[in-house]
Design brief:
two-stranded antiparallel ribbon; single chain
Length: 273
């Protein structure tokens, strides 16, 4: 404990509280991250038990707000190189980093599966984008190189920060599942739905790229999932991310009012993402 004299009294402050305050202040300087404060990981007194307390990861075991913000911002800064990278490699990199940071921690099995879904999405997307850019004509991948001055590149900062904030919020449901003491079949089903949605998106991207590389950019793809969905890549993403957000809401509301209040900022962030 650290002792601080106030008047004639000595206040004792826990070092863990100092660390948590430091992490919060670091995150507060990053746009849009200020609204998402660290969540309380200790259950309220009337529901506390040795079993529940042991199952909740301590604050130090979870990624800090600063590290989560960096995971969203740093990959998106590729947009200063090429504008399109902010919404492509930056998108995939932010999701991959958020999932990987959580996997490094001691979290419940549900959160591990949830984090793996984000890792799968981000890694698959970036590998697909890299292949498309290196192996296919520019008219297909459309990542055109444009000359720009340093001043012109800095003008992209609002877009890059806006995308970073969106990616931060999209990963917010994972923070809720990471501190949930229990889960059920419905939560597991929603994780499976996330994987399913991201798998459909991957299949759509793969088939569309293969057919257009063979038949030409203007060819209308109608095979595979395109027989049933006009845009299976977008539909799959919508399905996967909706399942992720619903998972966060389900976990928050199923653990009781006190737990829901403790993760309320992350729950709001999930809706924003």
């Amino acid at each position: 404990f650290v002792g601080t004299r106030v008047g004639s009294r000595v206040c004792r402050v826990s070092p863990s509280a100092v660390v948590m305050l430091r992490d919060f202040l670091l995150a507060a300087i990053i746009p849009h991250a200020i609204a998402l404060r660290p969540i309380a990981t200790r259950p309220p007194p009337h529901t506390r038990s040795s079993h529940v307390t042991a199952s909740l990861p301590p604050p130090a075991a979870l990624p800090s707000l600063a590290s989560l913000a960096a995971a969203s911002i740093l990959p998106t800064c590729l947009g200063f190189w090429k504008t399109g990278y902010a919404a492509s490699y930056g998108y995939g990199g932010a999701m991959l980093a958020a999932g990987a940071l959580t996997l490094r921690c001691s979290v419940p099995a549900l959160a591990q599966a949830h984090a793996l879904a984000l890792v799968f999405y981000g890694l698959r997307l970036n590998l697909f984008l890299l292949y498309r850019e290196l192996a296919l004509p520019e008219e297909i991948h459309q990542m055109k190189k444009r000359e720009a001055s340093s001043a012109d590149r800095l003008k992209r900062a609002p877009v890059i920060l806006g995308c970073s904030a969106l990616y931060y919020l999209m990963a917010a449901p994972l923070r809720i599942s990471a501190v949930a003491p229990t889960s059920g079949p419905a939560a597991a089903a929603l994780v499976a739905c996330s994987f399913l949605g991201f798998g459909i998106a991957a299949l759509g991207d793969t088939i569309k790229t293969y057919v257009k590389a063979k038949e030409g950019k203007g060819y209308l793809v109608t095979s595979g999932p395109f027989r049933y969905l006009r845009h299976p890549n977008y539909t799959g993403e919508l399905f996967g991310w909706t399942a992720s957000a619903l998972l966060g809401a389900l976990v928050a509301l199923s653990q009781g009012a006190s737990f829901a209040r403790s993760v309320l900022p992350w729950l709001i962030g999930s809706a924003g993402g």
